UniProtKB/TrEMBL annotation:
Transmembrane segments: 12-42, 62-81, 93-114, 120-140, 152-173, 185-211, 223-240, 246-262, 274-297, 303-322, 334-357, 369-393, 400-419
InterPro entries named among the record's database cross-references: Cation/H_exchanger_TM (IPR006153), Na+/solute_symporter_sf (IPR038770), NAD(P)-bd_dom_sf (IPR036291), RCK_N (IPR003148)
Localization annotation: Cell membrane
Presence of the UniProt keyword Membrane in the record: yes
A Gene Ontology BP annotation from the UniProt entry: proton transmembrane transport
GO molecular function: antiporter activity
Alphabetical keyword list: Antiport, Cell membrane, Ion transport, Membrane, Transmembrane, Transmembrane helix, Transport
Cation/H+ exchanger transmembrane domain segment(s): 12-392
Its membrane topology: Multi-pass membrane protein
Protein name from the UniProt record: Sodium:proton antiporter
Residue intervals of the RCK N-terminal domain: 404-506
Keyword Ion transport: yes
GO CC annotations on file: plasma membrane
Length: 639
């Protein structure tokens, strides 16, 4: 009873510490793995001494195996084959040629600098070829890097995990069986990959069938059935061919995710929660089991080994694997810097240390210490600086340009023309085929289909666009469309026209901003545009007159005479959200209601067919500003 209670204590401490680290990381906006490693080391026997993972015995290996299966399955769920297709050549090279470059470069560095024997050096290099999705995924979400780079890093992290893990076990098997033939080792690697892929594909298809056709099962029960099937597939693959289970879990997740399964989003949420728990517990336990003395005993040579891996081997890897891609030098430089090692490296190193010690082979603890040193250096150096470097290189998703607009009407056409004049890609979506004529008259691309279809948003290229705007005449539909766009594609800016207070109806989760002003009467303003009863104006907020200018604008917004459309800030044109925080230097483009009748306007020389011109209007701005070039916008046809 006493022994079982000790194990219970160990698990409770690990779970509590892991979740606490996750909470603090979210609050401090730090990569969670940083605090998980710190907490694990502090709680281990070399510090406070609360955690002693060796008390779990073989149970630690069971926890590592089952938790790794969940982590890799969740990684497979996040693989979008359509996105991967855009970087398929580079990704294939990273998983094949890149693995070979890291294996050779890492082993040479470990042998010549770390003074490890060649067999142990190769074993170390085979363990650290992987870049864990459990580190890369949260890191990319935090820094919001551009879609192409994010897809390549996520795809590499997920696909290289099973390849690297199986490669490491093949190298270990070769070391433990000194008479092993290299050809047999290669065949064993390919067999493990093939068996794992075949079982994973069949299992992923089976899971999708369960979700699609087992209507008698509740959603909660379906999620648990998928978990049971996943662990069964993992065990089956391990029985048929040892260490093929890691490949099985990734392929099963990828097949399931790309099978158009209803309610898949809810399964992702469930598996995401299990992954957070698994990662938290594993990192705490494995870090607590690390001997600081063994890391310090490695010496300067091992430190230089990791530095060579980070600053020489990784850049060569990226240069060779992306030389013929359309990535620019900024993207390649970021890819060269971000390659943190994660839970798969840590778990494999821990298992190998046990296996080598049991077989009487020296170097097990040294390999584990060097792998953890690699994890610590890559996570702390790259994880803590990735956001800053992405901003410096200007490859964050916030830098993305382009506009997808749902709803083709005079007001949306006017906004689309502004973005088009700035050289940004613009795509409009509307179910009314008659909108083609209006869009074509202004050389705008329009897709005549429903934006509720994810494939239509994919066709519009929303994955690489900077802004999504829903502004049909139905505010409820606009809000639903914007929520779906945010969840499926996560563009940097998601806005919609809907008749609700944005602070009351939106939250940090849906990332939807109310466009322009609260309770915009979009039909009214479209009528104004059709009848020519508007002026298109601009004003620049001056620092000295900032307060008075803002008050004048807000007063006209309250009276319904003005709607702010766009703001130019730091040379970037953006759609104005209703809850915008104005800043000095903002250049605002707006529509001002001109109530004069058409007859009076004709008598005064105005014409409805005259294009709207961008001008400084004295009704709003009373302070001098530099003369602005006119931007002509073609009239929309009258209703």
């Amino acid at each position: 009873m006493e022994a079982s209670f000790e194990i219970t204590q160990q698990m409770v401490i690990a779970v509590f510490a892991g979740i606490t680290a996750q909470v603090l990381a979210a609050y401090l906006k730090l990569p969670s793995i940083v605090l998980l490693l710190v907490f694990g080391i502090l709680l281990g026997s070399d510090a406070i001494g609360l955690l002693h993972p060796h008390l779990l015995g073989t149970g630690l290996e069971v926890i590592v195996a089952l938790a790794t299966a969940i982590i890799l399955f969740e990684g497979g769920l996040n693989l979008d084959l359509r996105e991967l297709g855009k970087v398929s050549v580079s990704l294939q090279l990273l998983v094949t040629l890149g693995t070979l470059i890291t294996l050779l470069g890492g082993s040479m560095a470990a042998h010549w600098l770390g003074e490890f024997p060649w067999n142990i050096a190769f074993l170390y290099a085979s363990i650290i070829v992987v870049t864990g999705p459990t580190v890369v995924g949260p890191l990319l979400k935090q820094i919001n890097v551009d879609r192409q780079v994010a897809t390549l890093l996520e795809g590499e992290g997920v696909l290289i995990d099973p390849v690297g893990a199986i490669l490491a076990f093949v190298v270990l098997d070769t070391i433990l069986n000194s008479n092993a033939d290299p050809i047999d080792a290669i065949i064993g690697l390919l067999l493990r990959l093939g068996v794992g892929a075949a079982i994973g594909a069949a299992g992923g298809y089976l899971m999708s069938l369960i979700f699609k056709r087992a209507d008698v099962l509740s959603l909660e029960l379906k999620n648990l059935v998928v978990l049971a099937v996943l662990w069964s597939l993992f065990t089956l693959a391990q029985m048929i061919r040892s260490e093929s289970g890691v490949m099985t879990t990734v392929i099963a997740g990828a097949v399931f995710a790309n099978s158009s399964v209803p309610e898949e989003r809810l399964l992702r949420r469930f598996k995401g929660q299990l992954t957070i728990l698994s990662v938290s517990v594993l990192f705490i336990l494995l870090a607590a089991d690390l001997s600081i003395a063994s890391v310090l005993a490695l010496g300067w040579g091992s430190l230089f080994t990791v530095l060579v891996l980070m600053f020489i081997v990784r850049p060569i890897n990226i240069l060779c694997c992306t030389w013929n891609s359309d990535l620019n030098w900024r993207q390649k430089l970021f890819l060269s810097w971000v390659a943190p090692r994660g839970i798969v490296s840590a778990s494999v190193a821990s298992l190998f240390a046990i296996a080598l010690t049991q077989r009487g082979v020296n170097g097990g603890e040294a390999i584990k210490a060097l792998v953890f040193l690699t994890i610590l250096m890559t996570v702390f150096c790259q994880g803590l600086t990735a956001g800053m470097i992405a901003k410096w290189l200007q490859i964050t998703s916030k830098e993305a340009t382009g506009l997808v607009v749902v709803g083709c009407n005079p007001l949306s056409l006017l906004i689309a023309r502004f973005f088009q004049e700035r050289g940004e890609a613009v795509v409009m979506i509307d179910t009314d085929p008659e909108c083609f004529a209006q869009a074509e008259a202004q050389n705008l691309r329009l897709i005549a289909s429903s934006a509720l279809d994810t494939a239509v948003l994919e066709e519009a290229g929303l994955a690489s666009m900077g802004t999504f705007l829903a502004m049909t005449n139905n505010g409820e539909v606009n809000f639903v469309l914007a929520q779906r766009a945010a969840e499926e594609f996560n563009p940097p800016r998601v806005l919609a026209v809907f008749p609700r207070d944005p602070q009351a109806s939106t939250s940090a989760e849906n990332k939807v901003d109310q466009a322009f002003v609260q309770d915009l009467g979009i039909k009214t303003w479209n009528e104004y545009l059709n009848s020519g009863r508007v002026k298109l104006g601009t004003t620049t907020l001056d620092e000295e007159e900032f307060s008075s200018q803002q008050n004048r604008i807000q007063e006209k917004i309250r009276t319904g005479d003005l709607i702010p459309l766009l703001v130019e800030r730091e040379n970037r044109l953006q759609i104005i959200p209703a809850a915008i925080d104005w800043q000095a230097g903002d250049r605002i483009i707006y529509l001002l209601h001109d109530p004069r009748s058409n007859l009076l306007k004709r008598l005064s020389g105005a014409s409805q067919s005259t294009p709207l011109s961008l001008e400084k209007l004295p009704e709003v701005e009373q302070v001098p500003v530099a003369k602005l070039a006119e931007l002509s916008v073609s009239d929309s046809p009258s209703a």
